[in-house]
Amino acid sequence: MIEMNNYSCLLIRKVSRSLSMLLLVFFICTSLAAQEQPLKLNANVIEHPCSGEGHVISLKAEGGKEPYSYRWKDGTSGGFREGLTSGTYECVVEDAQGKSISRVFNFAAQPAPLVLKYTQEKAAENLASLSLQVTGGKVPYTYYWFGPGLDTEAMRNTSSHSGLPAGTFHIIVKDASECSENITVTIK
Hints:
Immunoglobulin-like, 1 helix, mainly beta, 2 domains
């Protein structure tokens, strides 16, 4: 049998109060840790460097207090934009408590698209020459020639070729941005 005196009861009350105080401190610390995190803005961007249009921005806010509002400087709303052209786009995201964060996206102006034209001349009997005229894109250009009797590696740095036999030729041109265009020419 446990005998308790006044001193024992007093000690138990103090331990009980200390435990209550400890639990109170624990709950306060836990609730402070559970408070919302700072407002952050994550972005996924898809850029189409060859066409200079069709860019995509997808935003997702985190932290702060939901709901979030997405306001773009051009008056558009929402966290997803597509079909964007070259230019600057800025979005301000605001949470339910009025805290905000902004992000700016720049899509550089792209050169004009690659355009291929060709001239064909009769060189000798059953032979011809082809010359490509390339405009747009970003120089330098790399040429890939495919057709009868051609060594593709030897043709990379030339926009023309002579002594070509009759047949169908495919020429692919890539610019410095890895944008490409192709043309098919048939020599009869």
